[in-house]
Amino acid sequence: MVGQWGKEDEEEVVIRCYDDRRDRIEMDCLEKSCEIGHDHQTLLFTDTLGDPICRIRNTPLFTMLVAEVGKRLVGSIQGSVKPVKFHDKSVKVGYVLGLRVVPPYRRRGIGSILVRKMEEWFVVNNAELAYMATQKDNEASLCLFVGRHGYVVFRNPTILVNPVNRGWGLKLSSDIGIRKLKVKEAASWYRRHVASTTEFFPDDIDKILRNKLSMGTWVAYYNNDVDNIESWAMVSVWDSSKIFKLRIGKAPFSYLLLTKVCNFLGRLLPFLRLKALPDLFTPFGFYFLYGVHMEGPLCGKLVTALCDHVHNMAASSDDGDACKVVVVEVDGDDDDDDDSLLRKCVPHWKMLSCDDDTWCIKPLKCEEKMAGNLSEFSNMHLGSRSSLFVDPRDV
Predict the structure, then answer these.
(1) Domain that holds residue 388
(2) For the segment 149-181, what is each residue's pLDDT rounded down to a tens digit?
(3) CDD domains, from UniProt (predicted)?
(4) Would 351 be classed as within a structural domain?
(5) CATH code (residue 288)
(6) Are 329 and 97 in contact (CB under 8 A)?
(7) pLDDT for res 42
(8) By the 8 A CB rule, do 332 and 339 touch?
(9) Strands (E), the chain
(10) pLDDT digits (tens, 9 = 90+) for 346-356
(11) Spatial separation of the C-alpha atoms in residues 372 and 383, rounded to whole Å
């Protein structure tokens, strides 16, 4: 596949599939040259543990395309295709992630060529929709996907991050029971209670729950309500630390100061039981909570108990660097729905969390149907609200 970015440029850009034996070392250099951050101060670095396609390897169908100029890799993009439930029918959707272009070659149309070629791969593999995630203040990304390629914004989730205190278990309420579900049981609960009320619920939920990275599914309830359960909550846990690590390269001075103060006082006055901030400047892993669902008038406290239970799992882990934070992503659009309640019930540190995630979507259909579909997606959440199910394989 060959593309060009302008008549004034004599070099051609060649788009081809990633070759692990040929490209792995150069891809590592490309990743390191592309810094990621949710503000102008914080830079987040990803260590793929030697596997550039680790973030898509667990999906049913995936590929990575690279852009080559001469014999040098200057860009890349990753994509996956999976079956989901959408408007009560099964469809295939393509997820775009990991778009990278090295700084010297930006603003030459290479990113646009990569997106177009990935969409062509989606269509070949029968995907009806394409979607991606970025930050709402990432003007370059929004200009590319929304302005040039016809995507529309359809969700603005909030990422909630809670630090893990090694060796410090949180006390759980004695009136709450927590039980681990078997895979078949968990899949049945998700299909019965979640599938009909969520966007993009994965048709292959059984495979997700059986994946080696899925640590299990837990349900919480009130012990005095066990015979006639009115309020309950459930959550599944995905161990992202097994496939990649993160590291903060730079951070605001306030974060550095708070880290030192909390850790110092925690050692000096242990009886205060101050929650220390973990060292996020060295590579760390995280547990991702997915499929968070709750029902009943008193379900908020149950969600908090489940999050505390996962914290205790991470705090008692034998691998000290395996999990330093627990992450969950919930919808951030409205203040009057269950996702708003989730934001209040999920323990998190505002300093570590961010509310600037933006999801964009595009139908991959013929042009005459495009306008109507875009209007449908733009107004998708103005009527009856559906909950947000974040596939852990997309993280």
Answers:
(1) 2-158+356-394
(2) 999 998 889 999 999 987 778 899 999 999 999
(3) NAT_SF
(4) no
(5) 3.40.630
(6) no
(7) 52
(8) yes
(9) 2-3, 13-17, 43-47, 61-69, 72-86, 89-101, 129-135, 152-155, 157-163, 176-181, 198-199, 201-202, 214-222, 232-239, 245-250, 286-295, 325-331, 357-363, 387-388
(10) 999 887 888 88
(11) 17
